[in-house]
Write a structure and sequence with these properties.
Blueprint lengths: L3 E4 L2 E4 L4 E7 L8 E7 L6 E6 L5 E3 L7 E5 L5 E6 L8 E8 L14 E2 L3 E6 L1
Parallel strand pairs: 2-11
Antiparallel strand pairs: 1-3, 3-8, 4-5, 4-9, 5-6, 7-8, 9-10, 9-11
Length: about 120
């Protein structure tokens, strides 16, 4: 059973930074696409960033260069660096993994595994 555990969320002021982590219980990076999603209250879940080991990285249109997805050398942890946080970045951030090679990396229904989420709250 694959488990994804997110951490690193918190309350920060606008303009600050956070680095989220997603630790995976099983070595799946080699054959899974990994991604970060977020969901704000009353809004749909949206793709933030995604990547496959050795492949391209993908970002949501709203990212504006403020988000960076990466993995550690051991291929057990996925990271999401968020800089210059804005109020609209507030929400629950989820880590997800899938085997599918669907062209739409940000289609949440194509993902097989999800973490429980970590809350990011940005204040002015």
């Amino acid at each position: 059973q694959v488990q994804l555990v997110e951490s690193g969320g918190g309350s920060v002021q606008a303009g600050g930074s956070l680095k989220l982590s997603c630790t995976v219980s099983t070595a799946i990076f080699s054959d899974h696409f990994m991604a970060w999603f977020r969901q704000a209250p009353g809004k749909e879940r949206e793709g933030v960033a995604g990547m496959r080991t050795g492949g391209l990285k993908y970002y949501g249109d709203f990212v504006e260069g403020r988000f960076t997805v990466s993995e550690d050398n051991a291929k057990t942890t996925l990271f999401l660096q968020i800089d210059n946080l804005k109020l609209e970045d507030t929400g629950m951030y989820y880590c997800a993994a899938r085997r599918s090679r669907s062209s739409k990396w940000d289609a949440s229904t194509t993902y097989d595994y999800w973490g429980q989420g970590t809350q990011v709250t940005v204040s002015s």
